[in-house]
Amino acid sequence: MKRVRIGVVGRMIGVLIVLGIAVFPIYWMFTTALTSDADLFAPEPRWFPDFGQFYVFVDALAEGPTLTWLANSTIVAIGTTVFSIGLGIPLAYALSRFSFKGKVAVGLLLLMTQMLPEALMVVPLFSLYRRFELLDSLAGLILANTAFVLPIVALVLKGAIDGIPKELEEAGRVDGARPLAVLLRINVPIILPSIAAAAVIAFFHAWNEYVFAVTFIFNKSLQPASVGLAGFIGEQGTAIQTIMAVAFMFTLPAVAFYLFAQKYVVSGMTAGAVKG
Amino acid sequence: MTTLNARASRRRRSPLGSRWTPYVFLLPAAAYIFVFQAIPLLQEVYLSFTRTNLLNPTRSEWIGFDNYTRVFASSDFQQTLGTTAVYVIACVVGAVGSGLVVALLLNGSFPGRGIARALVTVPWAAPGIATALIATWMLNAQYGIITRALRAIGVDVGESGILDNPDLALPAILLTTIWQLFPFVAVVLLSALQSVPTELVEAAEMDGANRLWVFRVVTWPVIRPTVGLIALLMTIWSLRRFELIWLMTRGGPLGTTRTLVIDLYSQAFDSKQLGAAAAIGMVGVVIAMIVVVGSRLVTRAAEKDTA
Amino acid sequence: MATHTFRRSRLGGIALLAVAGLTLSACSTGGSSDSAEGGEIEPATITFAASTFGDPGLGPRLQELVDEYNASQDIVTIEPAAVPFPTFGQTVLTQMGGGEGPDLVRFDMPEFTSAADAGLLEPLDDKIDADELGLQEGPDQYMFVNDERYGVIFDTSNYVMYYNTDLIPEPPTTFDEFMDVAKATTQGDVYGLAFRQTQAEENGVWQDIFNYVYGFGGEWSDGEELTLNNPKNVEGLEAYQSLYDANVIPKGADAATFRKMFAQNKVGMELNNGGYLVATRGTNPDLNFSVAPIPFPVRAQGAIMAPIVINANSEHKDAAMDFINWVLEAENQTSLQEALGASSVATKTTRSDEQLAETPFLPVYDELTNSSSPQIVVGFGPQTADIRKIVVTQVISALQGQQTMEEALDNAQDEAEQIVG
């Protein structure tokens, strides 16, 4: 077999191509937002944003409650992340470290719940929420979204805990620490990168969720951005530029969150090395 | 399997490490999932045997297996199952394959790595609705940048554009889905790659070993369980993906993009038949179960092979 | 009636206001408010869902009207509910079926009939006196389901032919001319006509083909039986298909795109309702366009009829009714009418000289009121959404060349008969 050597230059070229594919649609979103109708429907596309159109962003921020939407989405996304990690760590630990009756069933159930589409669950959950007075509240959305991401968070974390050598924990137990303390003091620091990855998954899921948000929230001031964005699609007219502008502003915070979480993903590299 | 001995020794070491310990860890999440997923799921199982209208969900008429027989008798549903299978398999293969390549690319060291790792997640961070909107716009039959580019290089996408072309709509939705998913695969695999012993890889490379060989022997065994997990999740997620398809084609043209969930949604909310929708949902759950159990068997067989 | 008591009580002034403030929080936490008949209206903040709130042109105008109502008194506050247009019907009906939902809703006819039939709407027989209010009979007759009134027209709007007067100086008056003009106008990146033809816009396709079916003398039912494959329907939809096949429309374009194209002089003609006027002016104030009756053999076309209804689950029905009464007051009907542009309202209002000067072709819309029908299948109102899905799917399959239009409608008839039983 021929030797394959990817030098730094080759790798850079590959990365640039990938980044181009990843980022171009978002660039196009931005450019479309800043293109006048006349240019948008011209025979030739306009490749670069027309900053003379920047008022589209200003108007979208000033007129629509865009900032409120973004704030609501942030609350829901952070709440879901915290909640699902908090519940997911002990669950993952139980699945990874203990063998107990019904373990296989729990694992299967976890994966099965991932199959249930929101569209299927929205009607039974609605009546459940009504009984618990969770409708029309951000807390309700956090709970619903957590239910949907908890299984995957748990599975990702279980994979990480599986990789930790038992001897490390044994050492903790010899010190007389209780299982919970062992989990928190020994396992959690080691699996931080995976926690970060799971957090990113949970955050993005909640950030994007639409079906629950549109059905469970009645109050306009509690609307998250996914619903607000859909609200720009009109019956008689759709302001393509405004939609693209809001969609763009909706995308940025999620990327920013990833940048924040990434620090931990990277710092996890050292934790991984301890184990090796 | 934990032997009695091991269990006993654990109990000795820690007062709380009794046989109840796992359940204590399990309880919060289990209770939570029971309330928010299991109860609604059981309700759906019941609904699938009833005729129930969306507008009157508390009044159900028991009709036995009628919803199931009707669903399976319909030729549209057979098309739906076929479309679902193609969509799911292509999504998994496409997303896992491209995600793995990207993770390997990003795992090395090169200038600007931090920025690259952040930027690559952009498609995944983009809200589903925003993705559907920009994809629809880029594929617009007259002004879409992709349509224009394809026409400029002489590709015939038909008068009515890609999304209205029965041969091209599903591939277009597939590519959009893969675009959306590959960063997720890449991020998770990137974190799995951190567990690959770097010294070993470096040592092997120093010895002049072929990179593909190093990958197969050193890297792959470490990340294989993660790849398996991701593939499983991709399968299940693709079975339930909704917004993207609904906003881009609503299952059309000619039903070529109508997956199980689209069918389900349209039964529940257009036709207002919660019973029929629940029956379709149960078919999906059973498929998911088969996939899950099947993948377990495969994993176990693979483990036996390597052992 | 409620309005009068309410007005009187308002004279009570500040004392009541203070009470209002105190009770507001109490009742918003869900205290039952089957309010005293003939008594005061309980202070409340209620929600109003209308898909038009999201429209870039109409939305702000509708909001102004609501603001005006809120400012006119201190007891009831109306808040627009957060329901986006793309999933409007599904969302509101799910909420209402689940025992919740907005207090007031502006529905389209198919959803209105389904909701009324399922008992989700408050009957308004005792609360609305059509004669005294002077409601326009034509549209008002459709506000009854199972012989009970469940709504009042909020806005109604007939379908006409919009045409770009720069591209088409003389509007066609027959279908043959319509076809010729469409062909002649289609040049370069300009299309003669635009209509919806993709599955992604099922509801829109239904609205569009309605005009072809009725304009060629067809109908979806005779009131008792479905007549989806009536030869006249086939003829009308073959005409629709002949336009599709003539390549005079931007194929694959959705309404959002081709309406922008119309505003940019890239599309010559479009069949649409009065609500489009405001949207088009908002997109391009300089566009030269006019409207004419749809030039099909029979003068019969669709109309958007949008009733405002009270949710039977509402805890503030009297407050909701107060808003409806306020909207129906003569002066407010006029301002609603002006806000809506070319649409009509529940009562007959006169168009001001000012309006007529701005839009000389306004009478064209008004003259079509008697020949317009709501886009439901008469006699099968609650099943319209199902029938719509079947018909649209079959018609699109014919457009795509999978079958003839006649086969499509035969299939639709068979499928639909199974559903309506």
From TrEMBL, chain A:
Gene3D superfamilies, per the entry: MetI-like
Protein name: Sugar ABC transporter
Record GO cellular component, one term: plasma membrane
Domain ABC transmembrane type-1, first and last residues per copy: 70-261
Membrane topology classification: Multi-pass membrane protein
Alphabetized UniProt keyword annotations: Cell membrane, Membrane, Transmembrane, Transmembrane helix, Transport
Transmembrane regions listed in the UniProt entry: 12-30, 69-93, 105-126, 138-161, 182-207, 239-260
Similarity section: Belongs to the binding-protein-dependent transport system permease family.
Subcellular location: Cell membrane
Upper classification of the organism: Bacteria, Bacillati, Actinomycetota, Actinomycetes, Micrococcales
Superkingdom, taxonomy of origin: Bacteria
Pfam hit, one: BPD_transp_1
InterPro entries linked to this entry: BP-dep_ABC_trans_perm, MetI-like, MetI-like_sf
GO BP field: transmembrane transport
Annotated source species: Amnibacterium flavum
